[in-house]
Structure formats: structure tokens, C-alpha cells
Amino acid sequence: MDKLPKNFIQQQIIDDLAEGKNGGRVHTRFPPEPNGYLHIGHAKSICLNFGTARKFGGLTNLRFDDTNPTKEETEYVDSIQEDVHWLGFDWDDRLYYASDYFDKLYEFAVSLIKSGKAYVDFQNQETISDQKGVPTRPGMDSPYRNTSPGENLEIFVKMKDGFYNEGDCVLRAKIDMSSPNMHMRDPLMYRILKQPHHRTDNKWCIYPMYDYAHGQCDYWEGITHSICTLEFEVHRPLYDWFVDELKDSDYRPRQIEFSRLNVSYTVMSKRRLLQLVKENFVNGWDDPRMPTICGLRRRGYTPESMRAFSDMVGITKVDGVTDVAVLEYCIREDLNKRAQRVMGVLDPLKVVITNYTEGQIEEIDAINNPEDESMGKRKVPFSRELYIEREDFMENPTNKFYRLSPGREVRLRYSYFIKCTEVIKNEQNEVIELQCTYDPETKGGNSPDGRKVKATLHWVAVAQAVKAEVRLYDRLFTDPDPAGHKDKDLLEFLNPDSLKVLTECYVEPFVKNAKPLDNFQFERLGYFNIDPDSTAGHMVFNRTVSLKDGYKK
RNA sequence: UGUCCUGUGGUGUAAUUGGCAACACGUCUGAUUCUGGAUCAGAAGAGUUCAGGUUCGAAACCUGACAGGACAACCA
Predict the structure, then answer these.
(1) A328 and A545 Cβ atoms separated by less than 8 Å
(2) pLDDT in tens, A64-73
(3) A338-365 burial, b for 16+ CB within 10 Å, e for fewer?
(4) I need a surface site. Which of A109, A205, A282, A375 has the fewest CB within 10 A?
(5) A173 near A212, Cβ under 8 Å?
(6) What's the pLDDT score for residue A240?
(7) How confident is the model at residue A1 (pLDDT cuts 50, 70, 90)?
(8) How far, in Å, CA of A36 to CA of A284, rounded?
(9) pLDDT at A485
(10) Which nucleotide in the DNA or RNA is closest to residue A64, CA to C1'?
(11) Between the CA of residue A236 and those of A15, A240, A386, A402, what are the distances in Å?
């Protein structure tokens, strides 16, 4: 984590340091608005902010950007802190809220009014908007633009004291109505919202706008590098304008923008994620199909894999879409080294070993993780009646299929070679059972005569297996860039098969005392974890990601 | 008919700041293997959006096009 790949932001920090700016300090902040759950794009920003500061021996604050009480809730504040911690980062005692600065922001507004740089505008929203003009044409001055500072101050105090109603008036900065940058055309600083705030309750009825609050909060916290996403690029002159009015030393925070993360086959905007939750297209913010941090956590992703992903995608100003395969690579790579192996059958087909003694049970040695010897071994029960994966049998095998078929010998992992002698079907001509013979000489999985088999199958013993529910997830959308079509609604691309619930699955008894979120590899199938819905009597697994499959039909 | 930003293999990034385009994912071979996984070895795939210019030399600098994005919430 300490040696992130070099990127343009680090280069700028190096340059700033070389110029001796800010006394050699590096101080960043992660400033979410508590209006939703964090997603993997935020994870990238968290890793960038905390990781960059750490690299330069600096600090990172967590700050809730809570300037709009109509959208913000304590539920989100709590989940955000949980997610940042889970990712492996800590802000020590530097937890801040924009609302901590409401008094100071008010005082600063008063000083701007006194120096004639802010005024109260009583026009309605539509009129103000019309006067702003359009990007290609200059705007017009408001008739309230030249109200005297004294009068403005009097009005602003009344605004704060609740004398006016929502929409009656706003406080605006007096900058430049003909600026080519729309954000400089006398931007709003305060609006009236007669709404309780999740932290300040009813103390305020005027609330600062983001643009008026952010740079000042950065300044008061001693932030040196205020990293945000590209859409704030055009806000930077305004950020600088307020900081210039405020600063009283050489220190100044600097805003740097990078491109937000997009991942193929999913969406990354809080608004759209909220829609998926509210309209029940998913089962909540932590639905394992969601790109939210809590969703990915529930799905089985580890903090390590998410940090690795964050490092891999890099930091630039280029708009693009990262292939979800990169994310999947990161979790496979991590879990391959760490996950406990176990055998589980998702679509069971019964196998009876006709020459195996009825009632006999053998405890077979199995390796817990071939990538990590220190994880040791476990015992797996073997008996006459087993389940194998239905797709591991083909009655009339194609030439690329080398698993079980009539007359063919394969290995059951860690146990014996078996040969299929008979296929039993029901009236619908469906295969319901296989009769096989085993070779007692092949115990442990190798034949003393050196004969080879082409396939090794996973299996579980019928009587000892734990019955489980397994939830298989597929991409939420069928289009690589579902939000990227101007003419089409995102919902048109919802994948109807993004969730498949299997209720007749069997897993070896080893998993019995596992806890929610524990990761496993089901051999030959993929990585699975225990869903929090799981109970002692009803185990529920999520498939985090399948194994790479080299078998092409 | 504005301002700002961005254009490098399929994808994401890199190129020590002007020195014959590198890495990762993905894809495809082969070896190996009691996971069709992992591992190992290798391959294909861009001449850097285009056109000019500066230079011994340009992905990088300049000019001009073209393409994409952001900006006209009392959202952040």
C-alpha cells in the first residue's frame, strides 16, 4: 500500500513539496455526503486519499459533507464509517462534519457582505436562473446586486433568524455575471431550508451550498490537497475565489481532480443505485449484486482485493470503463492464496458405488489449501452413496468432454477411481442415478499400476453432507455501459438472470461451524462465502466469483 | 457556436519529462498438475485521434482540425 504506482497527483504533490508549499505538509480528506452507501468508486477515492497521504507521511481526515439536510441521514453516516474502517483505513480523531463549521461559515459570509462581496437576492429561482444566461452568452446583473452592505447584513440576519420562508431569498457572492464560467456568475452561498438537520437539528434554517463550504472546510482543517472527481473541475476557480477571500497566510489548499471509476456491467451513481434499491430491483444496498462496498463485502470480496483493485486501475483524468474482469481477477488472486478448500455440489446427481460396502464410512484426508501448506488437512467422509455434479456426467460425451461417462474411469478427488457401469433414468428419460464401481487399489487418488485418468471430480457423501442454499450472481446489467446510452433507460438493460437461487446443494460437513462472511473455495467451482442470512439449520452461501474455466464446449 | 478537461493494443495504465512504446487484465498456444484452478514458458495485439510544424530525434512541445466529456440545481 505504501508504494502506490506513480500518478499525476503524486507528481503534483512532489512538485508542491519541492517548492516548499504548506510547510512540507501533506494532508488529504475523504468527504462523502451522507446521502447513500459508499460504492467501489468511493473505495478508489478512499484508497487514493488515505494511501497518498500515508505515502508522504501525511494525514487524512474523514469529513461528512452534510450541507443539505433534505438528503442526509445518520444511517448513512454510520455505514460510511464502517466501510472506511473495513477497507483498512483510519482517521484517528479527525472525524469532521461540514456542519461543524456552520458558525464559522456564517461569520465568513457576514464579512463578505460587509466588504460588499455578497448580497441577498429576493428574486425567484426561475428569474435568477434566466439572468445567469447560458454558457455561450453572458448573464445579467440582479437588481439586488447593489444593495448596500448595511442593508444586506440586516436582511441576512433576518434570513438566519427565520424571518423569511424557503425560496424567498438567497445569499449570493458578487463575482462576475459575464464570466465564461457559469459557476462564477454570482453563485449561491446560502439558501433557506426549514428542515431539521441530522446533527444541528433546528438550529439553522439557512444552509451553505457545497461550493461555499468545501474550500473553507478544507482551509480550516489544514488540508493541502483536496482531491475530487472531474465534474468539479469547473468549480475550481470558485473554490479558489473563496479561499483567496479567506486565507491569511501562505498556506492554501489545492483542488485536484481525477476521473471517477466506472466498471463494466454496473452503474456507479448514488442516484441510480438508490433507484435500484427503492424500486426493489435488488434487495437493499448490501445486495451482493450491488457495486456498493457493503454489497461487495457481503458477496465475499475482501478489503485486500479491493485495495489491490484500486491500485490496479490507476489515477488519471481520462473517462473510461474498467473491465469487471479486473475486479474479478483481484478477488480470485487474493482468495486463491487464502481460501479454505471444500467440496460442494450445486446440482447433485446421485452415484452409488455398487462394490463398496454398505454402511461403511471412510475418513479421507483432504488438503485445506494447496497454495498454503500451513493450513493443514481435514477429513472428508466417503461412503457408498455420493453426490457428484450433474454437469460432470455426459451420457454421450463430446470429444472435448473428459469427465464421467458410461464405461469411463475418473478420479473422485482425494479418494478413488470410479467407473460408470450403469445409467438409471426416470420415465421422462432423465438421468437420476449412476451406478459405478470403484477400484480399492486407488485409495488416495492414485493407481499403483500407474494408469491415468483425465478428470478429477468433486463429490460429497449423501448421508453426511450439509444441505445448503447457494445464491449464484451474475452481472446486474446485460450492457457493458448501461448508463451510457442517452436514448435508452438503464432499466432496459437489467439482467433478468442476475440472481439464481439453488436450494438443493450439498456441502461437505467441514463448513458446519463457519461464520457469516467466511470465504471458501468450492473446488472446481469458485469462491463462495457464508451469507448473513445463514442459520445453523439453513446454510446459505453466495458465489463470490467462479473459477476461471478452461473448458470450452 | 463560449469556457474548461481528455484522446496510447479489446480494457485499464506506464514511458525517469524530447531518445527506437512498457506493464497488468483479457485472449490464444504449450508444459505441468489429484481443482479444465493455480503455476511455468511463450504468442498475437497499438506506432500513440488526424494534419501540419519545431528538432538529429516527438506519444510528449507548437498550430489547426476531429472526437468524447464537464459546466446553464436554492444537489454534492
Answers:
(1) yes
(2) 999 999 999 9
(3) ebbbbbbbbebbbbbbeebeeeeeeebe
(4) A375
(5) yes
(6) 97
(7) very low
(8) 12
(9) 85
(10) B76
(11) 19, 6, 66, 62
| pLDDT of A487 strictly over 90 | no
Cell (9 digits) for A348:
447433485
Q: Looking at the C1' of nucleotide B6, which residue has the nearest alpha carbon?
A: A318
Single-letter code of the amino acid located at A358? E
Nearest-CA residue relative to C1' of B2: A136
The stretch A397-414 carries a mean pLDDT of 95
- Kindly provide the residue ranges of all beta strands, DSSP E only, lying in A458-498, ordered along the sequence: 459-461, 466-473
| Distance B10 C1' – A524 CA (angstroms) | 28
Query: Which residue has its C-alpha nearest to nucleotide B10's C1'?
Result: A323
Write the DSSP symbol of residue A66. -
CA distances from A491 to A249, A322, A327, A484 (A): 52, 21, 23, 12
Helix (H, G, I), strand (E, B) or coil at A354: coil
In angstroms, how far is B40 C1' from A528 CA? 28
Task: Give pLDDT, residue A224.
Answer: 98
The per-residue b/e assignment along A371-403, b for 16 or more CB within 10 angstroms, e otherwise, is eeeeeeebebbbbbebbbbeebbbeeeeeebeb
Return chain A residues 500..539 having CB < 7 Å to nucleic acid strand B: 521, 523-524
* Closest nucleotide over all strands to A264 (CA to C1'): B11
> Please, is A279 exposed, middle or buried when counting C-beta atoms within 10 Å of its C-beta (0-12, 13-18, 19+)?
exposed
The separation, in Å, between residue A501 CA and nucleotide B76 C1' comes to: 38
List, by residue number, the catalytic residues of A: 33, 260, 270
Of the candidates A27, A28, A35, A45, the residue with the CA atom closest to the CA atom of residue A80: A35
Cα(first)–Cα(last) distance of chain A, in Å?
Answer: 41
pLDDT, averaged across chain A: 96
Chain A residues 231 to 290 whose Cβ lies within 7 Å of strand B are 231-235, 259
Which residues from 5-64 of A have any strand B atom under 7 Å from their CB? 5-8, 11, 33
Q: Residue A48's closest CA among A331, A311, A321?
A: A311
How far CA A125 is from CA of A132, A167, A176, A471, in Å, comes to: 11, 7, 19, 50
pLDDT tens for each residue of A260-274: 999 999 999 999 999
- Strand B bases with any atom < 7 A from protein Cβ: 1-8, 10-15, 17, 24-28, 34-39, 68-76
Q: What is the mean pLDDT of residues A194-214?
A: 97
